[in-house]
Amino acid sequence: MAKKSSQATWGGRFSAGPADLMLQFSESVSFDHRLAPFDIAGSKAHAAMLAHTGLITAQERDAIHAGLDAILREIEAGKFAWDVKLEDVHMNIEQALTKRVPAAAKLHTARSRNDQVATDMRLWFRHACGMLGAEILGAQRALLAVAAANRDVLIPGYTHLQRAQPVYLAHHLFAWLEMLERDRSRFAGVAAQANWCPLGSGALAGTTLPIDREYTARALGFVDAKGRPQVTQNSMDTVADRDVFIEFATACALAGVHFSRMAEDLILWSSAEFKFVELPDAFCTGSSLMPQKKNPDSCELLRGKSARLQGNLHTLLTLAKGLPLTYNRDLQEDKPPVFDSFDQTALCARVLAGTLAGMTVHRDRCAAAVADPALLATDLADYLVDRGVPFREAHHAVGAVVALAEKQGVPLNLLPTADVRRLHPGFGPDWAEVFDLKRALARRRGTGMPGPAQVAKQFKRWGKILG
Ligand code: ARG
């Protein structure tokens, strides 16, 4: 095998460079190049700290800053030549800087790629959590618009996928809003976990040089609500820790589960059997064989992507579980699943918003489904409870009424009163008034219930939260 020149940044003790196959195997620049803006921000803060503590001069700092700014502009313009021989984003940028600025040789003073990559990723997580929060907010706004446009629509709520009790469609959609709101707050929580500065931890044991970790932390905005710098508290933990990666992937996986459950409802609702909604053509596809088909592909992919998001989480858990402290090269494999989770979660939120925005509600079908009087069987039991009958006895009596209706083949509310009274003396002449849907909903007054007053309150609440 031909001898390669040894690697410029760490090649001092090597007489030969890596094999081509090893380069191909070990490079990460093909995926970690997206860390460039964060890597450059971290390097600028580090250089500023080095100047602040007298480890480099102000001129050297300024030259490094100007060089890094120029490199970032090149990267953003797509003109930067990434080189896999330089392994990763960190070494590509450092080498490019070294070619332009002699002082670049001092940039890596009191720093290792181990605390550097930890810093880049924490900066990236703060950014990524903010982006995903905004994408989810977009989906929530689309949901609120559907609810507002169909304020008076009632549908059956389901358990076991069997019609259970009537609810406003808005109440069902508000359940989705709650799920997404927890996702948003989870991402805010992950951003808070990420908000600690690793720089100064070095490879694993800090540095002998007189650095100022708090200065760097402040420069990168790793501060608490009062502006006090937050620096990580153990150099070994700092370079080995991948908790934030796992927490981020967890938040994505859980958001994916939520998207998937909403998608499943939409798939059911758009089927001919339900036909509560019509999904927009723009987010459906046809069949290459069956001309009549309109398939809910966006929703099915939302369901499918959730599996992928869970897979990414699992990859990270497994990656971390067997590693001895501290950094091991295995950890380079932490980035593809995290980036994929970010990309796919952002896409899912956007596709969900688009699907909802173009969706129409078939009010007639919803009205027909919710007209089934059996949905108010529980209300009939409550009617007996109101008249002093213990709930278990009331439940039993209404069960008998349901059975009788089934046997006679008539809707529950059309049974002769005499027959119903024979099943329990608690049923009065007004027993069938229970089957008035409006009245049934109006009685559900408590917080979190689907009654009209509560739904109105939730419209106000969500309007405020979602802006
Ligand atoms: N590309 C590496 C990663 O993503 C950077 C850290 C390398 N550190 C090392 N000691 N080889 O993990």
Q: Enumerate the strands of the largest sheet in spatial order, edge to edge or round the barrel.
A: 1-2
Query: SSE order in H/E notation?
Result: HHHHHHEEHHHHEHHEHHHHHH
CATH architecture of the largest domain: Up-down Bundle
The N- to C-terminal Cα distance equals: 64 Å
Oligomer: single chain
CATH class of the largest domain: Mainly Alpha
Small-molecule binders here are:
arginine
Radius of gyration: 31 Å
- Detail the poorly predicted runs: none
Count of individual helical segments? 18
Give the tally of structural domains: 3
The helix content is 55-70%
- CATH 4th-level superfamily of the largest domain: Fumarase/aspartase (Central domain)
The whole-number mean of residue pLDDT values reads 96
Shape by Cα distribution = elongated
CATH topology of the largest domain, what is it called? Fumarase C, Chain A, domain 2
What would you call the structural class? Answer: mainly alpha
Please give the largest β-sheet: 2 strands, antiparallel
> What is the number of E strands?
4
What percentage of amino acids are in beta strands? under 5%
